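User: Predict the complex.
Assistant: Input components as received:
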Amino acid sequence: DIQMTQSPSSVSASVGDRVTITCRASQAISSWLAWYQQKPGKAPKLLIYVASNLQSGVPSRFSGSGSGTEFTLTISSLQPEDSATYYCQQANSFPLTFGGGTKVEIK
Amino acid sequence: EVQLLESGGGLVQPGGSLRLSCAASGFIFSTQDLSWVRQAPGKGLEWLSAISASSGRTYYADSVKGRFTISRDNSKNTLYLQMNSLRAGDTAIYYCAKDRGMSRITLFDYWGQGTLVTVSS
């Protein structure tokens, strides 16, 4: 199975800050990675697919990059509504696996 | 508008069974692969099972293989998860999720609101 490791597990930043979350795969997965945002009590929401493609309706302050085993999700200017937990998911092969999550809090 | 509505969750004793349903609308159900994903209280996301559009292919996580069965009825636009031999560790919110439809890879563009399954005596 492909293990997905996210870091940091939590981050606290101010409105307007740039926030970067890293996701590492235990083996190469090309660009077959997705990022999701989950707010408390809600279902996850797709933000980024195939590592760097912005899902329709997602603000352009979100961006993704990477390939192989290392990927990043960047929020270029943190907004209050971005307070949430973010998960990466490898889409390369079954069993599908998610990272452990990164909780983003607003200072 | 795509909608996925799970039902069938509840309280069940260890060793018991439960069948979850996910009623879909707003897209051509018979052409889309679907999955079940769960989230234990305060924990992360765990993919459980996937089924192809035609039901020809199914996949399972090791944690549920042999205990859970995924199926679908394309005539009713409904996805199912039959859960047997339930354990306390199966306590979670169960989500159905729709594959975005990109060839060869599986990721999810729509999720249901989830249904809570509690396994306890």
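The interface with chain B takes residues 1, 32, 34, 36, 38, 43-46, 49-50, 55, 87, 89, 91-92, 94-101 of chain A (CB under 8 Å).
Let me know if you want any component modeled separately.
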